[in-house]
Write a structure and sequence with these properties.
The chain is an alpha/beta fold. The protein has 12 helices and 15 strands. The protein has an 8-stranded mixed sheet with strand order 3-2-1-4-5-6-14-15, sandwiched between helices. Strands 9-8-7-10-11-13-12 form a 7-stranded mixed sheet, with helices on both faces.
Length: 368
């Protein structure tokens, strides 16, 4: 198979879809790997290193997309990618189409095959290709909140860890999944007071157990939410419904319950956000203020630690890339049901029910 690795073009996106070990293995299996020049430069992988691994360096996106059949990316395609995508291509990447319906509809019109990392799902309902980036985003969300709490950043001027004689900050986390659990780990490590809200009582019991009672767990409902908002210095959104837009748990009027200069980091922004006032921000311009509350809603948080993120991501994604290359689309899906669940769009049809609902289009069972 001919595999293409484009250079990412989202704001400050330095991750890359494959690393040199991946390229070396694919080429040893007889596949061709085309790498856009400078694709790995953001994490210190030069074109020469990719070439030594067997990759073929191409000078621009037109050449890359023109030669490759399987496109392995990190983030959803932007205009410069979209120009060259066509019905021949299999796109394997994070897509998050529920949050960006215009991209979903454009890809449907192109007739491409789109497999989304975030909806590949194992029999136990876990999300193996979302997991590594959720771990990183959850951990980084606390650091982003700490940074935004500084006086010179417009925050309260709180050191969320506290110091002897001064109480630590109060962090509330919406969602006790992978993002929430990892955020809680870091927040506790800093010494903050942490509350996690979730609708799953079993999950709350699990968190209470693993954190040995150091985290306050609450059922996620409007009563508890309105009770904790006035006491929250940093609110982290980590709610996920696979393939669908995140529910808006915090309404605009409820932000008035929070103290001025409090901070929201909405990790769920990739799926539209779980705060009504969430809108996407970038690494270059990470925050905005609404209702006196600082919002940080970066859509590619793991790119802030691109080297760690790339290797963590490719550790998870590469077995699926190799499986696609070795077996082709139909064979790969027949042998790996988890990968088949990642199919969001196929030759003009939307093949994931939750994505179809979010896009407002008809769901079609895939016929491959």
């Amino acid at each position: 198979m001919k595999i293409g690795v484009p250079k990412e073009i989202k704001d400050n996106e330095r991750r890359v879809g494959l690393v040199t070990d991946n390229v070396r293995e694919l080429t040893s299996l007889g596949h061709e790997v085309f790498v856009e020049t400078q694709a790995g430069s953001g994490i210190g992988i030069t074109d020469d290193v990719f070439e030594k691994a067997g990759g073929k360096i191409v000078s621009d996106k037109k050449s890359l997309y023109g030669q490759a059949d399987l496109i392995v990316k990190v983030k959803e395609p932007l205009d410069a990618d979209m120009e060259y995508l066509n019905e021949r291509h299999i796109l394997f990447s994070y897509l998050h189409l529920a949050a960006i319906p215009e991209t979903g509809k454009a890809l449907l019109k192109k007739g491409i095959t789109g497999i989304a990392y975030e909806t590949v799902q194992l029999a136990d309902r876990s999300l193996p290709l979302l997991l590594p980036m959720s771990e990183i985003a959850g951990r980084m969300s606390v650091f982003l909140g700490v940074n935004s709490s500084r006086s010179d950043a417009g925050g309260k001027g709180l050191l969320l860890s506290g110091v002897p004689g001064v109480a630590p900050g109060r962090i509330a986390i919406l969602g006790g999944g992978v993002v929430g659990t990892n955020a809680a780990k870091v927040a506790l490590g800093l010494g903050a007071r942490v509350t996690v809200l979730d609708v799953n009582l079993a999950r709350l019991a699990y968190l209470d157990d693993i954190f040995q009672g150091r985290v306050t767990t609450l059922m996620s409902n409007q009563t508890n939410l309105e009770k904790i908002l006035p006491e929250t210095d940093l609110l982290i959104g980590g709610v996920l419904i696979v393939g669908a837009a995140a529910p808006k748990l915090v309404k605009t009027h409820q932000l008035k319950l929070m103290e001025k200069g409090s901070v929201i980091v909405d990790v769920a922004v990739d799926q539209g956000g779980c705060i009504e006032t969430t809108r996407p921000t970038s690494i270059s311009e990470p925050t905005y203020v609404q209702e006196g509350v600082i919002h940080c809603c970066i859509t590619n948080i793991p790119a802030t630690v691109a080297r760690t993120s790339t290797y963590s991501l490719t550790n998870a994604t590469f077995p699926y890339v190799r499986h696609l290359a070795q077996n082709g689309l139909k064979g790969a899906f027949e042998k790996n049901p988890a990968l088949a669940l990642g199919l969001n769009i196929y030759r003009g049809s939307c093949t994931h029910p939750e994505v179809a609902t979010s896009l407002g289009v008809k769901y079609d069972r895939p016929q491959i």
